[in-house]
From TrEMBL:
Cellular compartment(s): Cytoplasm
Pathways per UniProt: tRNA modification; tRNA-queuosine biosynthesis
Keywords: Cytoplasm, Isomerase, Queuosine biosynthesis, S-adenosyl-L-methionine, Transferase
Pfam families: Queuosine_synth
Function: Transfers and isomerizes the ribose moiety from AdoMet to the 7-aminomethyl group of 7-deazaguanine (preQ1-tRNA) to give epoxyqueuosine (oQ-tRNA).
Subunit (UniProt): Monomer.
Name used for this protein in its record: S-adenosylmethionine:tRNA ribosyltransferase-isomerase
Primary localisation category: cytoplasm
GO CC annotations, alphabetized: cytoplasm
Ranges annotated as spanning the membrane: none
Family: Belongs to the QueA family.
Example of a GO MF term: S-adenosylmethionine:tRNA ribosyltransferase-isomerase activity
Listed GO biological process terms: tRNA queuosine(34) biosynthetic process
Amino acid sequence: MKLSQYNYSFSPNMLAKYPAENRDESRLMVIDRASGKIEHSVFKNVIDYFDEGDVLTFNDTKVFPARLYGNKEKTGAEIEIFLLRELNRDLRLWDVLVDPARKIRIGNKLYFGDDDLLVAEVIDNTTSRGRTLRFLFDGDYDEFKATLYKMGETPLPKWIRSKVEPIDDERYQTIFARHEGAVAAPTAGLHFSKHLMKRLEIKGVDMAFLTLHVGLGNFRTVDVEDLTKHKMDSEQVVIPEETAEKVNQIKRAGGKVCAVGTTVMRSMESSVSTEGFLKPFDGWTNKFIFCPYEFSVANCMITNFHLPYSTQLMMVSAFAGYDLLMEAYKVAKEEKYRFGTYGDAMLIL
């Protein structure tokens, strides 16, 4: 498969600017890979496709307020910092993206907040936009982290809308978010409400959790026509032993193992035994999945409608089948489904 095969007629008007009024009332497209049939429903009806003895696997990462606005020393030029990951707790070192990056050099000081409450020094240039910052802060670590996060803003993708609103603080987070470390939400999980989770539990559908801290690399532009030459950024993954055991037990019994989102699918496919079962894991993955690919663990998945040329679209096409997925996207446009982070959902059986 080539990059050019993952284009489709797209308009920004197709993107959802806001989430559905209720989490579980987005629209749901259901695709049956065996028959090629496409159905239309509402997300809360996803329960109808699962039975006792099936398992849904979720990503319980938690998004932190990763976007900061400040000023450069001397010139006072406005800058935007996107926190990527903490490198050293004691030294207050962080990998960040800077915008605009052109005039931010090693040794520059950056100021954030009223009365310059937080100061950072640029100590390394890692990429064209990337920098390593050392935050200069006199208090202890908990005070520093609290100050940093108080100044931060929900890192809503700017292609949704430019202004972050109070609704985003809650809705750009899954209800089961627990382990902090993501700079973007695992969007398929945003559709699950407490009520829906309870209904699934009562029906006997099992739930398992893993953690993949979503980084900006998940959204990095693919700029090579030959997909074998694209390199994904590494992201941190934890698959607990309990999750592996639960998934493998249901897989052996022939039940549905559903990956809720591309991050869950990528995590599971990053830690597979030679027999095709899920292994516990604590490390990093840069796995890139595209056609053709033979999946080992999950036999169904829930996902959103992804943008052209995105790695998520490539993975989903590998799972659903390229031709069927492109047909589904054509139908989605005709039926006015909402695309993107806050958009509608797809269940692939």
